[in-house]
Amino acid sequence: MKEDNKLISEKLKESEEKYRLIIENAQEGIWTIDNDGYTTFVNERMAVILGYKVEEMIGKHLFTVVNQERVILTNNHLDQWKRGFTETQDFQILRKDGKQMYFMAKPSAIIDDNGNYNGTLICATDITERKIAEKKLKKSETKYRSLFDNMLEGVALCKIIVDENDDPVDFIYLEVNDAFERLTGLEKNRTIGERVSELIPNIKDSEPNLFAIYGKVALTGETTKFEIFFEPLKIWLLISVYSIKRGYFVAVFDNITERKKAEEVIKKERERAEKYLDLAG
């Protein structure tokens, strides 16, 4: 019996040692808190994320590593964990040096032998770099969205539609800027998500070459620039077209109707002047 107990004790110790090594060497942080929010354990990785030594973390309350304005939110997290909430959450914390960090936390309730809540085990992954990148991307998107919306030229991002023979037959407006509406008269909100054939029903008959041009750019990546009298809207357009990826194209255009009218007036005046010179000669 003693030998059996000794064997069980050795196996238990061996098992505990194995899992201790796994936890200590895990690439994600392991953090346990008691039912009042005080730290009872962190592994080396968790301590590194927080900027503390392991022994400094023991007994530290969860509130001491969050911004003061996030204490209420953190307290809500604690209440959720006590109720068995286990969904992954993004968590914002402060390192010992005051640097703001983010980690993705997966909580699991610790239940004692009597079925009572006895704390929370948190598996944490440092996602600070990802969050910083997301913020920079959002800032960049805001900047370029502002430029996009305030451009004087009209811009349309479109997806080409082809038939079974891969021939362009239509295209969908995915995004247009404010100048698009001003220059074409087509309402921005009613244009996005619509096929051009639905917005301008007779376009296939009046502008058959337009589909071929846009289709070639979208399917080959070749850029082009051209002037066209757009019959459905009775305007002249100068259009530059390029592709961002296969099947899509961006058209940047300006309404050059007034320029064309001026050129026509100049042309007629020149012809009239030449005619008078011929008569005078």
Describe the protein.
This protein starts with a helix and ends with a helix. The longest helix has 24 residues. About 2% of the residues have low confidence. It is of the alpha+beta class. Strand 4 and strand 5 form a beta hairpin. It is elongated. The protein is 44% helix and 28% strand. The protein has 2 domains: 131 residues, PAS domain (Beta-Lactamase, 2-Layer Sandwich), CATH 3.30.450; 112 residues, PAS domain (Beta-Lactamase), CATH 3.30.450. The strands form 2 sheets. The chain has a 5-stranded antiparallel beta sheet. A 5-stranded antiparallel beta sheet has the order 7-6-10-9-8.
Give keywords.
five-stranded antiparallel beta sheet, Beta-Lactamase, 11 helices, alpha+beta, 281 residues, 2 domains, elongated
Summarize the topology.
Layout: H1 2-24, E1 29-33, E2 39-42, H2 44-50, H3 54-57, H4 71-82, E3 89-94, E4 100-111, E5 117-126, H5 128-150, E6 154-162, E7 168-176, H6 178-184, H7 188-191, H8 196-199, H9 203-206, H10 208-220, E8 224-230, E9 235-242, E10 248-255, H11 257-280
Antiparallel strand pairs: 1-2, 1-5, 3-4, 4-5, 6-7, 6-10, 8-9, 9-10
Protein name: PAS domain-containing protein
Domain PAC: 87-139
Domain PAS: 15-69
* Name of the CATH architecture of the largest domain: 2-Layer Sandwich
Overall domain count = 2
Largest sheet: 5 strands, antiparallel
Relative helix content? 40-55%
- Look at the structure and give the mean pLDDT: 82
Order of helices and strands: HEEHHHEEEHEEHHHHHEEEH
Our estimate of the beta-strand percent is: 25-35%
Overall CATH class of the largest domain: Alpha Beta
How many alpha or pi helices? 11
Secondary structure tally: strands: 10
Shape: elongated
CATH topology of the largest domain: Beta-Lactamase
**Oligomeric state of this protein:** single chain
Considering the protein shown, what is the CATH homologous superfamily of the largest domain? PAS domain
- What is the rounded Rg? 34 Å
Based on secondary structure, the structural category is: alpha+beta
Strand order of the largest sheet: 2-1-5-4-3
Domain PAC: 87-139
InterPro entries: Biofilm_reg_signaling (IPR052155), PAS (IPR000014), PAS-assoc_C (IPR000700), PAS-like_dom_sf (IPR035965)
Domain PAS: 15-69
Pfam families: PAS_8, PAS_9
